[in-house]
Design a protein that fits this description.
Elements (H helix, E strand, L loop, with lengths): L6 H9 L5 H4 L2 H4 L4 H8 L2 E2 L3 H13 L2 H4 L3 H10 L7 E2 L13 H9 L5 H10 L2 H10 L4 H8 L8
Antiparallel strand pairs: 1-2
Helix pairs in contact: 5-7, 8-9
Length: 159
């Protein structure tokens, strides 16, 4: 027995608007259902109907996803609303790049401003030079030893 639900079967059932497909699954297969995974596929269609797939998936499935994702059969029926009635080619949409900065200056800025994303931290570093970031560290109550550890021995160049 396969460890996963067959991708082509699931997407074909969504495309054909087979509302009872999920209810016909055996219990062990229902446990393998992941609405998040299929949300990525359902929203991406090649060819005609591309914008409809994206808009329908967003309106019917994604809009209240955090409130509804634990209700698998309801999620399935919402997915079926995104189908067109004919088989489509669905591409995987890669998730956002969550590249984490590992340099000590970026980590420090992230500690001070935890709401900033990695690209915003990079921008902050580009518009502020070392002296301004060091002043921020002093204002945050960092000792000179801690500041030296953040900046290291060599001087950072402005990006």
């Amino acid at each position: 027995m396969s460890d996963k639900l067959p991708l082509n079967d699931v997407l074909a059932a969504i495309d054909s608007r087979d509302f009872s497909w999920y209810s016909r699954l055996p219990d062990e297969k229902k446990k393998k259902w992941s609405s998040w995974l299929f949300l990525r596929y359902a929203s991406s269609v090649k060819g005609s109907g591309q914008s409809d797939a994206l808009l329908n998936t967003n309106d019917f499935v994604n809009k209240n996803y955090t409130d509804l994702y634990k209700h698998d059969e309801l999620m399935w029926k919402l997915f079926c609303l995104t189908g067109t009635g004919k088989k489509q080619y669905h591409e995987w949409i890669k998730g956002p790049n969550t590249k984490k900065k590992t340099d000590k200056i970026s980590q420090f800025i992230s500690e001070i401003f935890p709401h900033l994303k990695s690209d915003e931290i990079e921008l902050y570093q580009m518009i502020n030079d070392d002296s301004e970031i060091k002043q921020l560290a002093q204002d945050a109550g960092k000792s000179q030893e801690q500041i030296d550890e953040i900046f290291g021995k060599k001087k950072r160049k402005k990006k």
